[in-house]
Design brief:
With about 150 residues, the protein is α+β, with helices and mostly antiparallel strands. It is built from 3 helices and 7 strands.
């Protein structure tokens, strides 16, 4: 794949966004965005449920040069998080947790990206918070490690 290192990293991010956008088992999302913001922002704007794809958050790209000057190994994190406005805690915990594991299943069966692979090591986090208006926002976060050579 020709292009700069940045364009290759962006191709990986775009392919993860496509996987999330095409997921049919994680609820009907209003959008999938490459950004990281507090869930109160999309909640106040009426954009829930939505998902974010955030590369290089809580981590860094570890680059290892090869004997060939034009090739480098990259290992870097991408976090995928989704937020849902739910009616309460008790009836929604399992639903949102199931969405997170459905996303893991999608990543586990689609590990090949345009450049590189999704590592078999993933993390899952699920939780909720209640805002001052009384509505409950549930979320999940799936942490991926991407390994590439280009």
């Amino acid at each position: 794949m020709a292009g700069s290192t940045a364009s290759k990293i962006n191709a990986v991010v775009d392919s993860v966004i496509t996987l999330v956008t095409n997921a049919t088992t994680i609820g009907t999302l209003t959008g999938v965005y490459e950004r990281d913001e507090h869930p109160a922002i999309p909640a106040n704007e009426g954009r829930l449920p939505c998902a974010y794809v955030v590369p290089l958050v809580e981590g860094k790209d570890v680059i290892r040069l090869t004997m060939t000057p034009s090739n480098m190994y990259h290992t870097f994190p991408i976090h995928v998080m989704a937020y849902y406005n739910m009616p309460d805690v008790s009836t929604s915990l399992r639903t949102v947790r199931d969405y997170a594991y459905d996303m893991v299943d999608i990543f586990a069966t689609n590990t090949s990206l345009p450049v590189g692979q999704i590592s078999p090591d993933m993390t899952v986090e699920s939780g909720y918070w209640t805002n001052q208006g009384g509505y409950v926002i549930h979320y999940w976060i799936v942490g991926l490690t991407i390994k590439t050579l280009f």
